[in-house]
Structures are given as C-alpha cells and as structure tokens.
Amino acid sequence: MLKKTLLLLPFLFLACSNKNVVHYENLTALKWHNRIAKDVKSNNLDQADDDFLSLEAEHPASPYIKTDLIILALAHANIGEFKVAKFYLNQYEKRFASSKEIPWLEYEKIKFDFIKYNNPYTNQKDLLDLIDNCKKYLKYYPNSQFKYEVNTILAKAELTKKYLNDKIYKLYKKLDKPKAAKEFKTDIPKNSEPPYVPWYKKIFYW
Q: Locate the Outer membrane lipoprotein BamD-like domain: which residues (predicted)?
C-alpha cells in the first residue's frame, strides 16, 4: 500500500476539487482507459486527470497508463496548459520511454516552451532557458529527425534575444548609463522583423 501511495505522490497536484468532477471507483483498467479517452474527447480534462489518478491507484501495472500519459500530455498542451503537459511527458520519460523515444519527448517539451513564450520583451529567463535547451538538444541528439524544427526554434529565439537586448540597450542609453548599455549592444540582422507584440501589450513595454 505504501509503495502505491509513493507512486502516486507526483500526481497529487493534479487532483481536482472542481465540483464538476465525478469520482468513480472499482472499474477495470480498460474501463478507466475508455473513460479517460471519453473525457479528453469532450474536453473535460479535470475529469480525465481524476480518472487517471484512479487508474494509477487501482491498476498500477496497467499498460494503459503508458498510453494515457501521452494522451493527457497532448490534450493539456492543446488547450495551453503546458506545465501540466510537460509533467505528463516527464512521467512518461522517466517510467516508460525507450532510448528511441527520448528525442521526440525532448523536442515536444521544447516546442511547448516555445509556444507558451508569447511576451517577447519580458520573461528573459524563459527565453534564455529555451535557447539553452535548444543547444543542448542539438548537442545530444545531432541525428534526430526533429533537429531542423529545433534549429528553427533556436534561430527565432536568438533573434528575439537580439531585439530584447536592443530594447535594453536603448533604455540604458536613455538613462545615461553607457557602461550598462554597452553590455547589451547588438547588431540586428538586416531585413529581419521584430517579434510581434499586440497593441494592447505595447503600452507596458519601454
């Protein structure tokens, strides 16, 4: 019993207090799997998460767990819940992934981070982490079929970094801090376009 409880600990944050979640018990593994598929199809991911917890608790050795981790990861990513999506992918990678699957899983996590990065002149740490993860990916998986996609993400992220540095450079120039400004001076590639920023966000930038 203790072993099962420890296995479920990483999933506890997914437990939902949503009053629309219905709690079932004592179903077969196949029925839990079918319920999860039905929940995802109806876009009721709170219920799907809850049903997955039950599948884990009642059938910890079920082969459906492996499949449902991927299903839930992609379902959460599809509605922009990338943190939860990455959690499911990490669980799959730790527990089930073969060496051939790792490049795809790591690519998916990079893709999630790229998609969620939608404020090009903020979240500098997220941008730097994305660049670092892309470089690590290309180093560790040079023959991956996803290397071209990662290269594209890296190029876009590095261009965004240049525009961000240029913004910081101009800010320090306005503040008459030439030494600080010098650290961020950068060359913007010709014919490149700055990251798109909706008009309602521009008023919050420098």
A: 37-176
